[in-house]
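tool=predict chain=A
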Amino acid sequence: MKEILASLPVQYRQADLPDAGMLGYIYYESWMSTVKGLLPERYLEPYTPEALADAMYRLIGTTYADYFLIDVDGQPSGFCAADYQADPEVGEITHLFLLPAYTGKGYGEGALRFLLDHLKGRGKSRAAVWVNASNGRAVRFYERQGFLPTGEERALYMGVPQTERRYERTI
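tool=predict ok
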């Protein structure tokens, strides 16, 4: 079934400022489906689709990262982004979000392949991503795609203490 669903036509296109509302909605739906139960409700309250759309509006216009809207069968279904300027050899995947209806169907793998090809086209030889250690699904996803932990960690406070781990792989 995974192959059948993932065979629907997928398009990746550069996100523009008018896409900020859709990216905010996708961010909200994806993130909330992932973090509910991991983070306290009071921490999540300010993260509305509108607040995330405002954040996306500010980020889309940056010159250090590329943002892409993912359309599956003509429907907005996710977005992904990569920072290509922080390191001359390593590009960093900063966002990869799918609406819950599209997770577990191969679209995440396709989006990651797209980002890796994009970073390679920008001259990068490695890709990195920071993953919340408590997000077992994301950890397993990146490890299945060949990412290995670098040993780098950073502490976050998201209503409760959290740890992010850096993963890298060759492109």
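The first strand starts at residue 10 and ends at 14. The two ends are 28 Å apart (CA to CA).
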